[in-house]
Amino acid sequence: MTYEQLKLNNQLCFRLYTAARLTVGAYHPYLDPLGITYPQYLVLLVLWEQDKQPVCDIAKRLMLDTNTVTPLLQRMEKSGLLRRTKGKTDTRQRIVSLTEKGSALREQAKHIPECLSANILEKMGSLEELTTLVPALDKLIEGLSER
Amino acid sequence: MTYEQLKLNNQLCFRLYTAARLTVGAYHPYLDPLGITYPQYLVLLVLWEQDKQPVCDIAKRLMLDTNTVTPLLQRMEKSGLLRRTKGKTDTRQRIVSLTEKGSALREQAKHIPECLSANILEKMGSLEELTTLVPALDKLIEGLSER
DNA sequence: TATTTTTGCATCGTGAACGATATAAATATG
DNA sequence: CATATTTATATCGTTCACGATGCAAAAATA
Hints:
Helix content of chain A: 55-70%
Distance between the termini of chain A: 34 Å
Strand order of the largest sheet of chain A: 1-3-2
Shape of chain A: globular
Largest sheet of chain A: 3 strands, antiparallel
Oligomer: homodimer
Number of strands of chain A: 3
Structural class of chain A: mainly alpha
CATH superfamily of the domain at 10-110 in chain A: Winged helix-like DNA-binding domain superfamily/Winged helix DNA-binding domain
């Protein structure tokens, strides 16, 4: 019995960790001109789908905790992408809503997904294998996220 | 033509990003008792395979830059897991070698991969789908990492 | 050999992630 | 109604990830 399983190349998690890092990196050429980071882009995706959400709903959607999301939102408020107002029914809540600037970015971001697909397609030859990733990742995420 | 592609649920990268986070998180119960983080575990995996490597080789192996790896190694040196000595043939290099403590951790870490597999198996029912991830992730990583 | 370029490592600053902890408001329970 | 618990958010500290930059040693080139 050796240490075979302790070899880096046998580790699924390292692949996920690396693939995620590199994929986020592939967004840089498209997000830099908009002046936003990838996590900020994710927040915008959520708000573009539905504006005016409390912090906890955004956090749930991104599967992050508020201690990650709150500072993220504060930075985004500072850069004028959104506003954080006190909730009316529940005064503990902070309702996050897009500013004009935040809303307008949607139009500029519209083509990012296809740009990225094209980019990856060019580098990989085919997107076939990537689509097979989706259900497996979903199952993994579901398994690891249940309490 | 709508903003369909801008929906969070249609984003592969978000899945990768989330799956990676959650999987790293699944290591916590096993790494915390050893007093190391996941990136530190990765460094140890590399050094356990081959001791006494220059910083750049470790960085290459982990597909990270030295500006990430150097502080990581400095912290690990501080906690007594490794040493960083000046290279003899090439004095620019810093040769990283395991200490007694760093080497000894290997025995304790030996069962982590199978613990994690068992853990995930329990939560997902089957590991079948996960093995299909490996070749797709490898191809993605290769595509995104070429210069 | 002298000069240029590249390489290996380090430092700095910023933005995340996340554990731990705090606080006030809402809700549940006695 | 009073008290206990939960919930929504925030703050703090540590560790990463990474762009930008600096520096000295090695390698390449003139």
